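Q: What would this chain look like folded?
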Amino acid sequence: MAGKKQFDIAAALDAAMIQFWRAGYADTSVDDLSRATGLNRSSIYSSLGDKDTLFLRCLERYATRYGDAYDAALSCAADRPLAAVRAFFDVTLERIADPGLPDGCLVAQTVMATPVLSAGVAERAREAIGFQHARLRAALKAGRLHDEAADSLATHLAAVNQSLAVMSRAGTSAERLRAVVDVALDASARALGARD
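A: My prediction, written as structure tokens:
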């Protein structure tokens, strides 16, 4: 259409996601989003929604992107459960090591900011963090752990994974983060009977 400015919605969503990830929901203004995306305020509102709507879209984008990566990592759990857990943590460690991405985890920092979020955003963040436990639990059950053991180990691994995000945001080195993962893998090997 003549006269109408076109832009790449996917690129704008990625830029907004990075802004929210870097600064958090509460400390990101619409002006910050305008600078990050290169769009004026009216284009943001008309094309991407208000701040809550845009944040939900970014949170969904993040959860899908990394959820898909976690699912792929865990896909070998039925035959090689310990390798699946290792691959799961590798997704997180690779994300943390990427210099083009902010430290931490958008989902984890959103959950920690629940008191300042709208009810809808807070609920979606809680769901997203719950998906991590659910995918780990399903993978561990596929690796032939019984329900209670799968649930306990999934809770532990999800907690370790979220702690990696918090520790990375605090500046913990890659070597120390890998050491944390190694301890979790040792515990997983014992729980899984070292089947791999």
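Residues 51-74 form the longest helix (24 residues).
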